[in-house]
Structures are given as C-alpha cells and as structure tokens.
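Handoff note, outgoing to incoming analyst
You'll be picking up this chain. Sequence as last confirmed:
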Amino acid sequence: MTFQMKIYEEREEAKEEAIKETLFNNIKALVQKEGWSFEKAFDVLGVSPENRVLFLKNMQKTTLMN
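Most recent structure output, in case you need it:
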C-alpha cells in the first residue's frame, strides 16, 4: 500500500466517522428538543437498520436514555 493510498483510506474513515457523529447528534437533538421518538427520528433521517442498532448502543452510554 502506498503512502497516498493510506492517507486516502484514513480520510475516508474520518469522513465516515464524522457523518455518523453528525447523525448521532441530530437524532439526539430531535429526541431531546422536539420530543420525537427514536423511531420517528430514525425514519425521518433515513437511518439504516444497522446504524439504528449502533446508535441505540451508543445512547445507552449517555444519560439521554436514563
């Protein structure tokens, strides 16, 4: 693997993480500020079933679900 390919892969991974973090924050804001259910926020934002599972696991680590 060349140095350029490694840099490209790292950028793509960082971009994917930033997208997931933004989605996470948007869902959290809709639930907290608008009173939406998680399911409604997922549906409106088009969250895939796989990402829904990941999101709910992450939410269990925060105080939102307590």
